[in-house]
Amino acid sequence: MQFSSRLPIATHILLVIQLYGKDFKVTSDFLASSVGVNPVIIRKTLGQLKRANLVEVNQGIGGTTLKKSLDQISLLDIFHAVEEDEDLFHFHENPNPNCAVGKNIHAVLGGKIRDVKSKFEKDLDSIKLDSLIEKFKES
Amino acid sequence: MQFSSRLPIATHILLVIQLYGKDFKVTSDFLASSVGVNPVIIRKTLGQLKRANLVEVNQGIGGTTLKKSLDQISLLDIFHAVEEDEDLFHFHENPNPNCAVGKNIHAVLGGKIRDVKSKFEKDLDSIKLDSLIEKFKES
DNA sequence: TATACTTGTAGTTTTGAATGTTACAAGTTA
DNA sequence: TAACTTGTAACATTCAAAACTACAAGTATA
């Protein structure tokens, strides 16, 4: 069980725009070729990043640019852009309300899980994209 | 996108054994009725908890007991018992090896993601089941 | 204006994991 | 032997992710 590849793909997209945006028009086909997925997936993801105010997309003419510098974009920003805001774990939906455990499991365990999610989000927020980019320039 | 209900279900199971084990024989049917899922799901989960040395199952006669006290069982123990050990995020599988980003995205971002996973696991480990049980006794 | 290229998005298909269900062999007790 | 339970195989169902096709609409430029 793991999270979808949307955050990795979105991160990939942003890094490509940063590294290649100066020399190329970064279209959905260009990105699809680097990421290795269908251009429509790229366009949908770009739509999510646009709504989160992370990128600007030039409709018609084509091409994409970043709206923030890399040190202002965290993995949490990307996570929120491409994933639903929901509990970290899916809860079984029919616990027995006549059982002390069944009646309260969602509230009690759910509270703890939400605490864990808060910390998880803080950890994601502490990682900015500029901490990744150096490794790509070297290669 | 969220984790499966296996950790919530396994936690539910352990709490029921603790609370009802003295007065009832806690069979897979008994547990299925409290959790609200099929008894076979319960048996599979009990198998995972048994392999993790968290419970003992009496084959033939039926019934289950805890092998540790609640203050010795953390959400991380349960998480490891019921979930695969893998990256937190699924990575796109065909990044372009001729692209600086595509060639290194898995290694670079993967490293950061593993750091986040380590912290996530520490947070889960800090939550022991005895911190949950009081709320159920009250109700 | 016509052409070429691009984005946005609807609609459909494919794939894979989670979950549900049936069935039955094997263990245990009385 | 009868009654009950666990362990597990096999198959069905459900649901979300991802792939793909198609096309309307935006934009630049010849």
What's the structural blueprint in terms of helices and strands?
Two copies of one chain form a homodimer.
Chain A: H1 6-20, H2 28-35, H3 39-51, E1 55-57, E2 64-66, H4 75-82, H5 100-125, H6 130-138
Antiparallel strand pairs in A: 1-2
Helix pairs in contact in A: 1-3, 1-4, 2-3, 4-5
Chain A binds a DNA duplex (30 and 30 nucleotides) through helix 3.
Structure summarized in a few sentences:
Chain A has 139 residues and is mostly helical. Chain A is built from six helices and two strands. The first copy, chain A, has a domain at 6-86 and 128-138: Arc Repressor Mutant, subunit A (Orthogonal Bundle), CATH 1.10.10.
Summarize the structure in words.
2 copies of one chain form a homodimer. The first copy, chain A, has helices spanning 6-20, 28-35, 39-51, 75-82, 100-125, 130-138, and strands spanning 55-57, 64-66. By secondary structure, chain A is mainly alpha-helical. Chain A has a two-stranded antiparallel ribbon with strand order 1-2. In chain A, a hairpin with a 6-residue loop joins strand 1 and strand 2. In chain A, helix 1 packs across helix 3 and helix 4 crosses helix 5. Chain A is elongated, with a radius of gyration of 19 Å. Chains A and B meet through helix 1, helix 2, helix 5 and helix 6 of A and helix 1, helix 2, helix 5 and helix 6 of B. Chain A binds a DNA duplex (30 and 30 nucleotides) through helix 3.
Sum up the structure in keywords.
homodimer; 139 residues; mainly alpha; Arc Repressor Mutant, subunit A; two-stranded antiparallel ribbon; 57% helix; 4% strand; DNA-binding
